[in-house]
Amino acid sequence: xxxxxxxxxxxxxxxxxxxxxxxxxxxxxxxxxxxxxxxxxxxxxxxxxxxxxxxxxxxxxxxxxxxxxxxxxxxxxxxxxxxxxxxxxxxxxxxxxxxxxxxxxxxxxxxxxxxxxxxxxxxxxxxxxxxxxxxxxxxxxxxxxxxxxxxxxxxxxxxxxxxxxxxxxxxxxxxxxxxxxxxxxxxxxxxxxxxxxxxxxxxxxxxxxxxxxxxxxxxxxxxxxxxxxxxxxxxxxxxxxxxxxxxxxxxxxxxxxxxxxxxxxxxxxxxxxxxxxxxxxxxxxxxxxxxxxxxxxxxxxxxxxxxxxxxxxxxxxxxxxxxxxxxxxxxxxxxxxxxxxxx
Length: 343
What we know:
By secondary structure, the chain is an alpha/beta fold. It has 10 helices and 12 strands.
């Protein structure tokens, strides 16, 4: 099993990344503020306009450490990686499968079924644990409707039907999302799910967490030799990591949504940590972003029993495990792809 390494998040725009031997250096005004051995890292994510030396990029490429550059708001700009790993035959299989409507439909059903089941589990948990603080009737209705959707998915005969069921499930889920927020309800109320840009605090938080999850899934897919750009449900579009978005569907509720709600309900983040821009976009300030990143790193260290492997692993390895299982299925080692169902 792969070892869970750290991701280095750089949030200060005045930072310059360099290296000294096998160490990554964090510099501000030519003064080294922090250093970390490159072998302890699986990735570096830079928010804002942090610079990086060519020598550091070479070191990271040689050691398999990807450097991702995002705007301060979390929009992806670019990524520096080394040579592609993995068997070329695996990617050729992936490309053939992506062109096969029957195979794409079968895998799409798996991704969305897991998303619906995991989203339903999130809603069921708040109804079970806080029945006096939520809209019982609305939640029970949503849970009942969501429970029947996996069977409807199995009967879907084309991708558009799958997308329609996914859209219906997402509407039900986010229509009841406010019941998950037990503290600071007025400040973190969701009117609807929106992005590009997010126009309220909860959407801003969710979009940021989804960006972090995207980075994790892209790295996981590349590490097992799959192409993150070629998906089965999400079709190819220049610059879009379609397969990453496929895998993310099953991981969003447990990885990102629950963490967002936890940060709010525990008052680890507050309304004052968000700024409204002139165009209506709502973004996090630096302190809030650091708080979220710290919580994200801690959450990755939490251990779970993987539902398919039945082994205890850090939560942060789940994207890698799912990528590995998908690769095994493509190689013929597994009869079908087992998605991640949160227990």
